[in-house]
Design a protein that fits this description.
The complex is a heterotrimer of chains A (about 475), B (about 375) and C (about 140).
Chain A (H helix, E strand, L loop, with lengths): L6 E4 L3 H12 L5 E3 L23 H5 L3 H14 L4 E3 L2 E7 L2 E6 L2 E6 L2 E4 L3 E3 L12 E3 H11 L1 E2 L4 E6 L1 H12 L4 E6 L3 H11 L3 H16 L3 E3 L3 E6 L6 E6 L2 E6 L2 E6 L1 E3 L2 H5 L4 E4 L4 E4 L12 E3 L9 H18 L13 H21 L15 E3 L4 E2 H11 L4 H8 L12 H12 L18 E2 L20
Chain B lengths: L2 E10 L3 H12 L4 E4 L8 H4 L3 E2 L9 H11 L2 H5 L10 E5 L5 H12 L6 E4 H7 L9 E5 L3 E2 L2 H14 L3 E3 L4 E6 L4 E5 L7 E10 L5 H7 L7 E3 L1 E6 L9 E4 L5 E4 L5 E7 L1 E2 L4 E2 L2 H14 L7 E6 L3 E3 L6 E4 L6 E5 L5 H18 L22
Parallel strand pairs in B: 1-2, 1-11, 2-8, 4-14, 11-22
Antiparallel strand pairs in B: 3-7, 4-6, 5-6, 9-10, 10-11, 12-20, 13-16, 13-19, 14-15, 15-16, 17-18, 21-22
Helix pairs in contact in B: 1-7, 1-10, 3-10
Chain C lengths: L30 E2 L7 E6 L2 E6 L4 H6 L6 E2 L6 E2 L12 E6 L8 E6 L10 E3 L15
Parallel strand pairs in C: 2-8
Antiparallel strand pairs in C: 2-3, 4-5, 6-7, 6-8
Classes of the chains: A alpha/beta (about 475), B alpha+beta (about 375), C mainly beta (about 140).
Chain lengths: ~475, ~375, ~140
């Protein structure tokens, strides 16, 4: 059975790489499908190779340089022993077969076992003006600096909440960008109260404290407990307005980095038939998995932020753990990997990280009822330009209580981003407008293609199967 | 304590057929309830292509189609929205020379029913439709046809029914039904709420791909099986498709909506009778045919695919008409993928049958007992 | 006036769309902080030659010269991407590619944040209502 196993890993971030390492050590040769041009994922994203980028890993990753380097060199060493396919998008999933696209051509990739390590994107809540040029996610702002050596603007405000808020502001300021302010929607009190839980990961906690301290000592304005009101501008960002303690504030800027934590990319797990469950900690629907990372579908495993936000350390652990589960299911023994923890140790560490994550959610809580602040004319859906009024009227007129129904009637989530940027907001708005909890409004069902794809690559002869006569409706 | 509700008519199934029937009956003053196990218009009525066309139908459907077509022009008055209905014309393309003669023949036949179509070929065809590729060499244009947004139209009919006094109950499946010799006795189970006991004089079976549950309960299953249309849509594009497009012989149909997205269908997805998924293989095959007709699609982005569950009969005609076993049971289902245009007309026909016992629109070809053998397959 | 300079312009933008809301500006959005010793790469934005650096994504390459990568097809408002990691799909641009077998130039779709700029690329950022490229049967 093991000889005939076709193992595919989707994602080459820390989870995918540690999974690959474990499988290769067991003598297997997985296919690793990576949408990016170079392995590393997002947090350990590398600048392009061979183009003259010179910054050191220290400069790129700061305190995480050693971990980033370890992940990178591990994968580099694995390359001869696996089938690494960069710039390859998985766009659909049949039972036991992935549809992939690379460089203008399509290739089916069949699998007997699949590890989904699809990672995450920023969790976004809208505010008036958020579609203006110059507004980027915190993750996007970080990638601009890390992978391209650019700041998102000449005068940057970072706004939202979450650990990334301070990390990116610190990275920007350290790199010489003009960081005008950091506006945190969660309160200092909430962060203080979360401290005991956060101390379950003392090194991580210390780093967070360090970033804040560094920013303050370098004169960067930090405000807590703000209510973001809007971003001004016509051709692009010109200023940001907020309210705090009953007073209005505004600051001129030409870029805003915006984010409220992260959200998992679960479309492939959905299309692969995995069962989902609402997770109260993450406040979103996640594919169900056991402690080892097995999904509800035999032969499909989940690891890393793509199955629930837990950070890069957890991703490395979960990637290895999922691979161990896969090997166990194949009847193979766990391989020797130097310094790699065994399954029991991994699960203990993951449990500890989850406690830390509970602290993070407490420290950097989302606003309780975010939709209540959204004016009617604010865009909720960027792609289709659907405003809050349209959604509220539909809920009122049709008594809508379910998110896919709201999508069908208003087009929210029907644009190119397929609900990634607007889905969360639409769920909050629907929950508040219909008097339900976030869990009760359901989740946006994934629909292939997982991301928009050009049609031309799908026309090549060898991939086309003719439509049978009896299926030719007019 | 459960309550018993009494209605003149119960409509079982809240697709476009059921919703339009409920609306028409409520408008005529009857006490109507519509029970829908999930959401109105979310099944075939909501996932279909959206073509509103008389052209291309078999002759026996034309009187019903023409009646239905007139209702589409009155949507704003009837349901408070036009459902994005556009009188775009329907262009039924010929891909081979041998397709032209059947198009001519159909055109002649249809003119006998008052439906005007013009068949173009050769240079005139090329000049008239420069945006079409080499995949087509002629076509029949029916200017009165068009297309609309299925996701909006069906729920709007349900809303209109409710506004006229119909008791529209979503998320309320009918769990039991029987006839006691005088009237129907039903049990319905709302997702949140107490069990309902319902009695009614008339029962309309408009439950689409699942209609054999009711038909079978009253001893008249039909050989209908589930099909799963394969649909896909592009990102918004500058306007370039002038008409709702189909091809003689089937396999691909395409329309461009006001916002610019191109909605394209053809072939089949996969499913289990309850839920359906689109097929990447089918999408690929249809893309090939679509791009031969519409080369500009090659550089567009595919952004979504979907499927749904529809009921198909052996002759691709629907079941419409009185039950042969049970008084005041009326069937209307099995539209085999072509029900969108027809449904508002079917609703009126059903209202005729309930209020007058007959309808001026010929529906004999759609009799429930026309199939010699009843298949056990659903 | 060469677009490869970073000087701000006082004259109106060259390629403003019809809608008055959100005139796109020539001012750059992204600012280079590091990695500026890379080889220059010349490409074209809306027909004008501009310079990027080897290893730039198309998004970086465009936004170091102006503040938009595309125009919304619904409102005409300028857009400049959002997530930079290929999730938001807000940075799709059109790129003229070499004709195939003697046909007209094709406009292919590229996701700017996920595409590396190549010398000679001809990117279109203003074509929200570009009927000219979709009008023909062989386009």
């Amino acid at each position: 059975m093991a000889e005939r196993a076709e193992i595919v890993i989707v994602g080459a971030g820390p989870a995918g790489i540690r999974a690959a390492q474990t499988l290769v050590a067991a003598g297997l040769r997985p296919i690793v499908l990576d949408e990016n041009i170079r392995w590393g994922g997002q947090i350990y994203r590398q600048p392009p190779a061979g183009a003259g980028f010179t910054r050191t890993k220290q400069a790129l990753y700061g305190f995480e340089a050693a971990k980033a380097d370890a992940v990178h060199t591990t994968m580099a060493a694995l390359l001869p022993q696996l089938d690494y396919r960069p710039e390859t998008l998985v766009w659909a999933c049949d039972p036991k077969r992935l549809h992939t696209m690379h460089d203008g051509r399509e290739t089916p990739v069949s699998f007997s076992h699949l590890i989904i390590a699809s990672g995450a994107t920023d969790r976004v809540l809208p505010l008036p003006g958020w579609t203006l040029p110059g507004v980027y996610t915190l993750g996007g702002a970080q990638v601009a600096l890390k992978a391209q050596g650019c700041a998102i603007g000449e005068r940057v405000v970072f706004a939202g909440t979450g650990p990334l808020l301070y990390l990116v502001a610190y990275q920007y300021a350290k790199a010489g960008a003009n960081v005008v302010a950091v506006l945190d929607t969660s309160t200092f009190a909430a962060q203080a109260m979360a401290a005991p839980r956060l101390l379950s990961q003392p090194a991580t906690f210390a780093k967070g404290v360090y970033y804040v301290g560094w920013l303050r000592s370098h004169g960067v304005r930090i405000e807590h407990g703000v209510t973001l009101e809007g971003i001004e501008g016509t051709a692009g960002v010109r200023a940001i307005r907020w309210q705090r303690g009953g007073r209005e504030h505004s600051l001129e800027c030409n870029a805003v980095g915006l984010g409220f934590g992260l959200r998992p990319e679960t479309q492939l797990a959905d299309l692969a038939g995995c069962r989902f469950v609402f997770d109260d900690l993450n406040r979103c629907w996640l594919p169900e998995r056991d402690a080892a990372g097995r999904s509800s579908q035999p032969g499909i495993y989940l690891a890393g932020d793509g199955a629930g936000i837990a950070g890069a350390d957890a991703a490395e652990l979960a990637g290895r753990r999922a691979a161990l589960a896969l090997l166990e299911d194949l009847g193979l023994a766990a391989p020797f990997v130097p310094d790699a923890p065994d399954a029991a140790v991994i699960e203990r560490k993951l449990a500890s990280i989850r406690r830390f994550r509970e602290g993070m959610e407490q420290a950097f809580a989302l606003p309780e009822h975010p939709a209540a602040q959204w004016p009617d004319d604010m865009l909720v859906c960027r792609c289709e330009e659907i405003d809050a009024r349209t959604l509220r009227e539909c809920v009122r007129q049709d008594g809508v209580t379910e998110i896919n129904r709201l999508k069908a009637l208003t087009r929210v989530g029907m644009g190119r981003c397929q609900g990634r940027m607007c889905g969360e907001a639409a769920c909050h708005l629907l929950a508040e407008a219909s008097g339900q909890t976030l869990a009760q409004v359901g989740r946006l069902r994934a629909q292939a293609p997982i991301k928009p794809i050009p049609i031309a690559p799908m026309l090549f002869d060898e991939n086309v199967v003719a439509i049978p006569e009896e299926a030719r409706d007019e | 304590m459960s309550e018993t509700l009494h209605y003149d008519v119960v409509v079982a199934g809240g697709g476009l057929v059921g919703a339009s029937a409920a609306r028409a009956l409520a408008e005529r003053g009857l006490r109507v309830a519509l029970f829908e196990r999930r959401y109105c218009g979310a099944q075939a009525s909501g996932v279909n292509y959206g073509g509103v066309r008389c052209q291309g139908r078999p002759e026996e459907q034309l009187p019903l189609a023409m009646r239905a077509r007139k209702i589409w022009d009155r949507l704003p008055a009837l349901i408070g929205t036009d459902g994005e209905f556009v009188r775009s014309g329907h262009l039924r393309l010929a891909r081979r020379e041998s397709d032209l003669e059947p198009l001519d023949a159909w055109s002649a036949m249809a003119s006998g029913y008052g439906l005007a179509t013009t068949v173009y070929r050769g240079r005139e065809f090329r000049q008239r439709f420069p945006w079409l590729g080499d995949g087509a060499l002629g076509g029949s244009l029916c200017l009165s046809d068009g297309h609309a947004n299925p996701r909006l139209v069906s729920p709007a009919f349900a809303r209109a029914a409710r506004a006229l006094g119909a008791d529209v109950r979503e998320r309320t499946p009918i769990t039991e039904m029987a006839h006691d010799g005088v009237r129907f006795q039903l049990t319905a189970q709302p997702e949140d709420g107490a069990t309902l006991h319902v009695s009614c004089d008339w029962l309309l079976n408009t439950s689409g791909a699942w209609a054999n549950h009711i038909a079978g309960t009253f001893g008249e299953r039909v050989p209908m099986h589930a099909i799963y249309p394969n649909m896909w849509v592009t990102e918004p594009l500058p306007k370039f498709i002038g008409h709702n497009l189909g091809v003689y012989g089937g396999g691909v149909y395409a329309r461009q909506v006001e916002r610019g997205n191109c909605v394209i269908g053809g072939g089949r997805g996969t499913g289990d009778g309850e839920y359906a998924q689109p097929s990447a293989d089918t999408t690929r095959a249809v893309m090939r045919e679509a791009c031969a007709l519409l080369p500009a699609l090659r550089n567009a982005l595919l952004i979504r695919t979907w499927s749904g569950v529809e009921g198909e009969t052996p002759d691709n005609n629907p079941i419409i008409g009185m039950s042969r076993t049970t008084p005041r049971l009326v069937h209307a289902f099995g539209f085999s993928g072509g029900g969108f245009l027809l449904a508002p007309g079917v609703g009126e026909v059903l209202a005729d049958l309930v209020t007058h016992g007959e309808t001026p629109t010929p529906i004999e070809a759609f009799a429930v007992d026309r199939f010699a053998q009843v298949s056990a397959e659903v | 006036m060469s677009r490869s300079s970073h000087a701000s312009h006082d004259s109106p933008p060259l390629h403003a769309p019809d809608q008055s809301a959100g005139q796109p500006s020539c001012h750059a959005q992204l600012t280079r902080l590091a990695e500026t010793s890379r080889a220059p790469v010349t490409f074209y934005i809306d027909g004008e030659p501009v310079q990027a650096l080897a290893g730039d994504t198309l998004l970086t390459a465009i936004l170091t010269h102006q503040r938009h990568v595309r125009i919304s097809e619904f409102s005409g408002a300028p857009r400049a991407g959002f997530c930079l990691i290929g999730a938001c799909q807000d940075c799709w641009v059109r790129c003229e590619s070499t004709p195939v077998a003697g046909g007209d130039a094709q406009l292919t779709r590229l996701r700017a944040c996920s595409t590396t700029v190549q010398a000679g690329m001809r990117v279109v950022t203003r074509a929200a209502h570009a009927d000219d490229v979709h009008g023909g049967a062989h386009g």
